[in-house]
Amino acid sequence: MMAAGRPLSGDRKLVSRGGKFALGFFKPAGISEEGAVDRWYVGIWYHKIPVRTPVWVANRDRPVSDPAASRLTIAPDGNLVMLDPSGSSAWSTNASARSFANVVVAVLLDTGNLVLAPSSNASDVLWQSFDHVGDTWLPGAKVRRDKVTGLFHGMTSWKSYGDPALGAYTLQLDPTGAPRYMLLRKRNGTLAYYTGIGDWNGLTFPGDAGYSFSFVDNDRDSYFAYGFVDNSIMYRFVMDVFGQVKGLVWVEDTQAWNQVFAVPMRQCDVPQRCGAFGVCTEGAPTVCRCLEGFSPRDVAGWSLGDYSGGCVRNTELQCGDSADRLKEKDSFFLMYYHVSRRLPDNGDRGVAAGASSSGDCEQACRVDCACSAYAYKRNCILWQNDLLNLEDTYFKREADVGDLYIRLATSSEPPVPGVRNYKRRTDEITVGAFAIVCLVVVTSVIIVGTTMSRRRAKKVQCLEGCVASFTYRELKSFTNKFSDKLGGGAFGSVFRGQLPDRTTTIAVKKLEGLRQGEKQFRAEVSTLGTIHHVNLIRLLGFCSGSGDRNKLLVYEYMSNGSLDRHLFGATPHALSWRTRYQVAVGVAKGLCYLHDKCRDCIIHCDVKPENVLLDVAFEPKIADFGLAKLMGRPRFQRAC
């Protein structure tokens, strides 16, 4: 509790009774630079978690430079005010509290709500932070419309991750009074880009925690609120700096915030996400980037995640007054293959009549001083001035718009090599590409020829996937007449052997009772030879002589044998729990690869410790994973 004469200053803080939240001075991470003046704010954050997470900020647009010389205090008129080092007010509750000037207190509740009320009657709330949410909406707080003042109190994003100042995006109630919310972009005018009604019902929480949403409409205000049955759950909605509303829950096991909700679902669906001439890439670590030939307008803001300033040309187009202004030598067009055009209909996009080809479309753009880009497919589309809402879409192409050509000054720096292509140099690049392809083909032929010659010299043939073909006589020699038996199973016995290089130890399995023809056997082995995974035994070669007795498979040798020997052998080796976990995870990964990642699904059908082999580092490798396929079980293949 904070009363008159007991201000907060410096590193002092007010902690809620249960210790869940704290109120005090803080500095967002990443906003201070070398030699820059510090910016400090008064805010509320979670007190018990290691990640400093502000949920409410008082002086969002008026930071102070010295928290030790600043104060958060109860003013003589009963309002809660923040005074900067000069004594000027940087923020105030502006509540009608004059009649309670001597007995007003500020209390931080365990819900995260900061309440201003008379000390004699805490329920007589004069002001509360839950009526004035910032970028974060906590359980119990309100996204509301004050019917007395007509003001909307909703979530407004931070300007950037390091700057709590009012950003460009807001969530508020629908001005028509309908029980729904809207997402607005308030920069250079107001643009509504999302409307929600029942979206809240799609939320999920650990343990199926009970929660509820409600819409209240009375004489004083109308608002949305939500809550949980279990108050220990730490959950918050955040109006992200990029324009998405995200639902985040704290997971104690991982000590991190886990996202369980987002609208819009796609980041790039937020309008003007990356500003002018900025390109949005869904799912990329860096969501926004500038077009080649452009740079961020605000480099410092860009580094902190504030992309609203967009990008500017590295070299401005030169536009003279003569009739032949912007001649071909003064500018060129940079072609983009995978940029989606979703520009708003704001007058900057139009169709050039009479342009019946891509060349006509280019010329129509060239003679227009304000034209910054064009596209041609069935029509010639021209863009003037800034380009907005560009998006990299490598797997999604618009059917009605051709490739986009960006206009750049000839003297501008060239783009990153290999990233994009210039239309003016299509022929040169085509010739260069053809030459490179020819070089690669010739080189490949030489390499393949040399390799095949060496293999023929060693009398080793190779199938697809580089699985060697051995003769029965060779394998008999490699295994010293099959004298060193490692084990056996339902499909045959396994023998230790060594290749002629004297450094590679192999395991040779003699298959018994396998009724397959020569062609089928080779096809199956070729398929298995292309399967490569760190947790699957590697097939090195095979022998397919006449008769079933002469069908053999050659595998890599596993020095630590099978898992069953370590678990159930006469003198079992005590595997550590770390090793057991490593084995379990490795086996799961190998099976997952067989089921879902192979070109043809393979069902093992015989997973047991005898078929799990361990290498020198006790890394597990599944063996006999191809027997189901080799035995010819088409119903399993169809089931996949």
Automatic annotation (TrEMBL):
Binding positions (ATP): K510
Keywords, sorted A to Z: ATP-binding, Disulfide bond, Kinase, Membrane, Nucleotide-binding, Receptor, Serine/threonine-protein kinase, Signal, Transferase, Transmembrane, Transmembrane helix
Keyword Transmembrane helix found: yes
Reactions mediated catalytically: L-threonyl-[protein] + ATP = O-phospho-L-threonyl-[protein] + ADP + H(+); L-seryl-[protein] + ATP = O-phospho-L-seryl-[protein] + ADP + H(+)
Signal peptide (UniProt feature, chain positions): none
Membrane topology (UniProt): Single-pass type I membrane protein
Compartment list: Membrane
Apple domain boundaries: 319-399
Any one GO cellular component localisation term in the record: membrane
Gene Ontology biological-process annotations: recognition of pollen; response to other organism
EC number of this enzyme: 2.7.11.1
Stretches assigned to the Protein kinase domain: 480-640
Record bears the keyword Magnesium: no
Gene Ontology molecular function terms on file: ATP binding; protein serine/threonine kinase activity
Transmembrane segments: 429-449
Bulb-type lectin domain ranges (all copies): 1-129
Name recorded for this polypeptide: non-specific serine/threonine protein kinase
Phylogenetic lineage: Eukaryota, Viridiplantae, Streptophyta, Embryophyta, Tracheophyta
Originating gene: ga04747
